[in-house]
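agent> Task received from the user: take the single chain below, predict its 3D structure, and emit structure tokens. No templates, no multimer pairing.
agent> Plan: (1) validate residues, (2) run structure prediction, (3) serialize to tokens, (4) report one or two observations.
agent> Step 1 OK, no nonstandard residues flagged.
tool_call: predict_structure(input=
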Amino acid sequence: MMAAQDAKSPKRGAAKKAESFVLPANVSIEKNIVYARYGSREVMLDLYLPKERTASPLPCVVVIHGGGWRSGDKQRFARHAAYLASKGFAAACIGYRLLPEVGVPECVQDCKAAVRWVRANAARYGLDPDRIGTIGGSAGAHLVAMLGTSYKVKKLEGVGGNPGGSSRVQAVVALAAPTDLTEMGERLGMDAATARAMSPVTYVDRDSAPLLLLHGEADQAVPLRQSEIILAKYQAAGASARLVKNPKGHGFWNQELFTETMDRAVAFFREQLAR
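)
tool_result: status=success, residues=275
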């Protein structure tokens, strides 16, 4: 049974270590910006910006943490967001509601609300609303893959904020992505129909966002074939996707291959989000 970096995963300690870092001198941060509201419940992001801008407006990358949809917060991918900002991108590092407060569909809706927030606030922060990418690991990779494939599905948009705005992204980097939840729906308390509705593979078509998949061949939490499944779907649909394998296990992006992973992501975003 696949487990996307759940609360009992041995990689959780590695993720915790990744939280501690020194903010690069060329990066500024605006913390705890509310991007979605559900009654009195607020959902927040941290916005990382390069202090010296080589381009204006800036492309923005929405950064989404993992944790099995049950644990973690925006600090878990703070280092990744700061790295992107140090390379000239804006990076919106988001928190989102978690299980059991909500279900996986609401996690997806929060992420879509975050993209809409970026687009709605682009002028205020000097961002380009037409150049939005996203990156995430494990459960976060599932969520970014949903952003890349399901923007046409209105019922997945939710009511978190900025209604009517587009949640479409222009580039996706997915690190060990669960892409077919029908294999783990029971674990998540999903029926077959919900599991299918929450599977990025369900929505792949020729308009899906260009996708870079990074996956460890020794991954025992999210099998490599989960990336292979969506790669095949992309290829069949005539959409752009590529898969880069490494010999490591789950969570390679936090420690062992952090710089290599992020440099691949930077190169991909520069390619796909160029003006």
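agent> Step 4: summary for the user.
Strands lie at 27-38, 41-50, 58-64, 90-94, 127-137, 171-175, 211-216, 241-246.
agent> Done.
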